[in-house]
Amino acid sequence: MAEQQQFYLLLGNLMSPDNNVRKQSEETYDTIPGQNKITFLLQAVRDASAAEEVKQMAAVLLRRLLSSSFEEIYPGLTLEMQTAIKTELLTSIQQETSPNIRKKVCDIAAELSRNLIGNHPEILTNQYYLLSLSCPAHILVSIFGNQQQHYMEVISALLQTMEDQSNPRVQAHAAAALINFTEDCPKSLLIPYLDSLVQHLHVIMVAKLQELIQKGTKLVLEQVVTSIASVADTAEEKFVPYYDMFMPSLKHIVENAVQKELRLLRGKTIECISLIGLAVGKEKFMPDASAVMQLLLKTQTDFNDLEDDDPQISYMISAWARMCKILGKEFQQYLPVVMGPLMKTASIKPEVALLDTQDMENISEDDGWEFVNLGDQQSFGIKTAGLEEKATACQMLVCYAKELKEGFVEYTEQVVKLMSMPLLLECARVRGPEYLTQMWHFMCDALIKAIGTEPDSDVLSEIMHSFAKCIELMGDGCLNNEHFEELGGILKGKLEEHFKNQELRQAKRQDEDYDEQVEETLQDEDENDVYILTKVSDILHSVFSSYKEKVLPWFEQLLQLIVQLICPNRPWADRQWGLCIFDDVVEHCSPASFKYAEYFLRPMLQSLCDSSPEVRQAAAYGVGVMAQYGGENYRPFCTEAIPLLVRVIQAADSRSKENVNATENCISAVGKVMRFRPECVNVNEILPHWLSWLPLNEDKEEAVHTFDFLCDLIESNNPIVLGPDNSNLPKIFLIIADGVANESVKSEDACSKRLANVIRQVQVSAGLWTQCVSTLNETQQKAIQDLLNTA
C-alpha cells in the first residue's frame, strides 16, 4: 500500500511544472522494473479514490508501455498476472464512470489486443476475446481494420461462451461483451450474421427463462434480454422476421417477474420490448401495442409504491417515450398517467454542499458525491444520485413535446417551470398569442441569465441552441432593450474568452512538458470552444433573421471580434464561423450590410480558394446571398467571384467526400449570380457548364435553389437549356429523376409542382416522352413516376 502511495506521488511529480522535479521523477520512473510498472499503473487506473489527473497519467503511461516495450515485458509475466491484467482492464471498462478515463482504458485494451492478436486471430477462441470485445466495436475496427471474417469469429466465440451452462458468470460476461459490440456495430456489418445471432439468442433466452422458473437464477437472463434489445436496435426493420420469436416470452417476463429481486430483469425487459417495437415499426408492433400498454400502465399505477432507487423507474420513463414515438398522436390518451412520475423525476434537486477538509473525511465518493477542489482547504460537493434519471426524464419531456405538439399543451405551464425549450412554445401556440407571449417572457430572462452563468459547456451549448430556436420561433419584437443589452455583453464575453483560451492553449504548446497527452487535452478543449462558437453564430443568425437591419447598431459592439475571427492566421473553424456570421449579415440585412464590406469582402473572396472545404463552403454561400439579397453595390464582387467558383468546381477532387458540400455551394452560388445578377456574368457561356454540374445530391437546401432556377429557365423556353429541337430534355429528365431519387426534391418544395408540370408537358408528345424515359434506369423511372403522383 505504501509503495502504491509513493507511486502516486511519483505520478504527480511527473506532471510538475518544476523542470527539476519532473526530470528527477522521470529518472526514478525509468529505474522501476517493467513488471512492477504494469502493476502500479494498472492499480492507479483502477483506483476509484485516485485523482482523475493521476488516473489519466497512469493510463497514458500504461498504453505507452504496452506499445513500446510489450515484447520485453509481457511474455515474462506469469499466466496469473496476464489473466489479472485482462480481468482488471475488463472490469475497469465496465465500471469506470469517467468517460475520459474509460476511453483511455479502451485504448489500452486495444493496444494489448493488437499486440496479443497480431497475426494470430485464432486467439479469439480462447478466454482473451472477452476482454477484446468488452470494448465498443470501434476498438475492434482499430484492431482488425475491416477484415469482416474476424467479426464472425467474434460473434461465434461470444455465442459459444454464452451457451456454456457450466459457468453462468462467464455467460453473463459474454452477453455483456455482445451488448458492447452490437451497440457500436454498424448495421451493415451486423446484418450478414443476424439470422445466426438471433437464433442463438432465442435458444439461450428460452433456456435461461426455464432456469429462472426452476432455480430462480436471473443474472444471465438480464444480460440476454439486453443483448436482444441491442441487436434489435441496430438491426431496425431487419428484425421484423424475428419479432414473433421473442415478443410472447418478453411479455410473459413483464407480466410475471413481480418479485422485488426481479425488478432489474423486469425493467430491462420493458426496455427490450419498447426498443423492439421502435425497431420493427408501428405496423408490426400494433397487434401487441394494446397489451404492452396495459402492462406498462399496471406498472405505472403502482409507481408511487416503488422505492426511489427502484431500477424500473428509469426503464419505464424511457419506454414511455419510445411508445410515444411508435404510437404518435394516439399516445396523447396516456399522458395523464405518465406525466406525474415523469415530472417528479425531472424535478429532482441534487444535494450540494461546501465542505472543509474535516467534513470531507466523513463523506466518500462511494456515497454518490463528487467534489471540486476550491483551494483554501474547501471543496464544493454535489450528490449525483438521481441526476442521470433527471436528465433522462428531461429528454423524455422533449420527446413528448416534439411528438405530440398541440396535444401536449395541457402540460406546457408545468414543464416551462423546469426547463425552457422551443418545442414548448410550439405546443403553447394553440392557446393564442397572449398565452404564447406570457410563456416566452417567463423563459427569456431565465435563458439569457443561464447563458451568462452556466459553467458546463455541454449544458451551455444546449441552452444557447434553445434560445436561438426560441427567437426564430417568436420573431421580431421578442427581445426588449434590456434583453439586447445583456445579450450583447454576454456574447462579447464569450468571443473574448474564445480568443483568450486559444492563446493559453498556444502557450501550453510551447511548454517544456508539452507531449501527446497534453495535445489530446488541448484538442478536446479546442473542440468545446469551437462548439460554443457555433452556438454564438446560431444566436446571431436567429437575431438577424428576426430583426433584419434594425439590429445592426447593436451588432457593432461585436463587429471587431467577428472581424478578428476571419483573419487569415486564425484556425479554419474560426474563419468558417466568422464568415457564416457575415453571410447572415448580408442575407438578412440586405443592402444595409454593404457598410461593413471593407471588413469582410476581401477575406471572403480569398476564402473561396481556401484549403479548408468548410471555409470554402461558407465563402461560396456568401457569394450566393450577395447576388440574391445584397443589392447593386455587390455587383463587381459577384463578377470577380465567378472564375474562382468555377475553378473550385472543376478541380479534380471537387466531388470527393470531404469537398462535395463546398463544391455544391459553389455550383449554387454560380446559379444565383446568373439568376439574380445576370449582368455580372456571361450567362450563355456559363449555363451549359452549370447544367452539366447538376443535380446537387448532398446539400439539400442549395439543391432547391438550383431546381427553382432550372424551372425558370425551362418555363421561359431558354434555348441553351432546352437545346435545338428540345434535344436536352433527356438530360433534364435525368437531372430531375436523380434529384427526386436522392430526396434533393421533396413533394413539399414549391419547385416539385413546377418540375412535375415540365414532365407532364413532355408526356403529351409520345415520341419525346419515350425518348426521355428510355435513357433512365429503373430507379430513375420510378422517381419520375413518384413526382407525378405526389406533386
Automatic annotation (TrEMBL):
Keywords, ordered alphabetically: Acetylation, Cytoplasm, Protein transport, Repeat, Transport
One Gene Ontology term, aspect cellular component: nucleus
Signal peptide: none
Residues passing through the membrane, by range: none
GO biological process terms on file: protein import into nucleus
Major location category of this protein: cytoplasm
Subcellular location: Cytoplasm
A Pfam family hit: Importin_rep_6
All copies of domain Importin subunit beta-1/Transportin-1-like TPR repeats, residue ranges: 204-351
Keyword set includes Cytoplasm: yes
Name of this protein: Karyopherin (importin) beta 3
